[in-house]
Please model this.
Amino acid sequence: METKESLQPSQVMIAGRLYPVKIRDAEKEKMQQAVALISEKLSEYQRIYSGKDAQDYLAMCALTLAFEQVSIKNEISLKGAAEQKHLAEINSILDETLGILLHH
Model:
């Protein structure tokens, strides 16, 4: 479990506003990448849907990024289930083979 002492205060700029965050030193680069991704998505939505307010762009950005995360989690889950099925098949074949070898 992380202790509060391991988290360092920092600030990130999103849509022209500073937000305080606490992150581990090892995660600073990931945080910078996340902020860059949000900025990129916001700029994209501002180009496509001009005339909206910042809240609309932030909501669309949050929805897009959450949808991508859910999609990735579902894909990983499906792959995990397929791998479990393959492992069960391999174990079954190994059990069968061992049974045959032990009886001969």
Observations:
- Residues 86 and 103 are 26 Å apart (CA to CA).
- Strands lie at 8-14, 17-23.
